[in-house]
Amino acid sequence: MNCKRAKENISLFIDGQLEPAGQARLNEHLEICPDCSSYLDDLKAGLAVLHGEGMEDPPENFEWNLRRKIQLAMTQRESFPLEDRSDRRDLWRFGLSAAAALLIMLSGGTLWYQSQFSGQSPGLTGTGLQVSGEEDTGRVGRPGWVDPLPGGAMPVTDRIGGAGGIPASEMGRDYGRPQHSGPADSLTAQDLN
Amino acid sequence: MAIHSHESLSDEDLILQVQEGHRQAFDVLVGRYKNRLYNFILKMVRDPDLAEEITQDTFVRAYIHADKYRTIARFSTWLYTIGLNLVRNHMRRKKRSPIGRIPMVGSQDGDKVEMDLPDPGHGADREVRDREMKERVAQVVAKIPQHYLEPFLLREYGDLSYEEISAATGLKIGTVRSRINRARSHFRENWVTRFGGEADTLV
């Protein structure tokens, strides 16, 4: 055993993590190596002081101050229940719902605008998501988009990209979760959400 | 339940009592852990006022969130993990703050650390000698590189196992083992440098 390994084993030995065979090898090394032997003695002496005389006492009024802090924290907790984590989660949910609603409204407004002015401006035809030079297929998405729900399973996206777009009278209706209209065995997780 | 009847309970039984609303059970836990937790935090932040504040915050959080404690972990591991996270939060804030970069007495940033100690010639009384000893130990620990310090102090003051230290710090067990070994090597070296020939007579 070399000295580097011996010092690693000394640390394990102090923590009671060295198995008996390892301890025997360490003892053999310590008998012939004064450096490692004194390393162990110094370390044990230092750690004993660290745990004994070297320990600082907390301030005298520590526990009194702690009680006061706990009382204050409990009062605040009762006065401001939103500090509770579950309430924070509710707040997050509300925020996310509000953001989603806003997004839907903005998207609806954009699509209505497109439907009203399609044909007047090349930049506003169809879904507005076409890559330049691509034919408008009437689908939302990138070129090569594959409808995940064949058989007319995405009526909303079919309609919004059509020649006339969504009639103003239908704005706000059917514009949300895709409605399933295909065969029952083609139901996907999306339909069940 | 009176405090004396709580004294015989294990930490885990006590925190379960706290969950049931027995505040006095928490007082017993504070009595058991305040010294070691305070020393752990003090050696990390090296500022007595801040150490007191963080130690108290650790207990406050443990009390308020006692219902989150699960018996899959020892209470001590749970408590030290809370303390460690608060210390880490403080360190992160300190790094961002320019004032936090001023090296403190005994920090490893200042190579030459002057010991502001009482004159040993007048240190006949025990109180002065004790103070001197505490200061020196603090300086020995302060010279250990920061990244070795967490596992070392969790082991020495928290008495956490390697597995528990690994869970608290997010380090692999092999890394924990190696860092504790290296921290001890620094500790021993600094110890001999500071105490020299006195070391044998001190313990």
Structure description:
The complex is a heterodimer of chains A (193) and B (203). The C terminus of chain A is likely disordered. The longest helix of chain A is centred in the middle third of the chain and has 33 residues. Chain A is mainly alpha-helical. In chain A, 54% of the residues lie in helices and 0% in strands. Chain B is mostly helical and 203 residues long. About 9% of the residues of chain B have low confidence. Classes of the chains: A mainly alpha (193), B mainly alpha (203). At the A-B interface, helix 1, helix 3 and helix 4 of A face helix 3, helix 4, helix 6, helix 9 and helix 10 of B.
Indicate the percent of residues in helices of chain B.
Answer: 55-70%
Count of individual helical segments of chain B: 10
Beta-strand residue percentage of chain A: under 5%
- Computed structural class of chain B: mainly alpha
Beta strands of chain A, count = 0
Low-confidence stretches of chain B: 100-118
Can you give the helix content of chain A as a percent range? Answer: 40-55%
Span from first to last CA of chain A? 65 Å
Instruction: Tell me the span between the first and last alpha carbons of chain B.
Output: 41 Å
Report the radius of gyration of chain A as a whole number of Å.
36 Å
Q: How would you state the average pLDDT of chain A, rounded?
A: 67
Shape of chain B: globular
Mean pLDDT of chain B: 84
| H and E order of chain B | HHHHHHHHHH
- What is the helix tally of chain A? 7
Report the major sheet of chain B: none
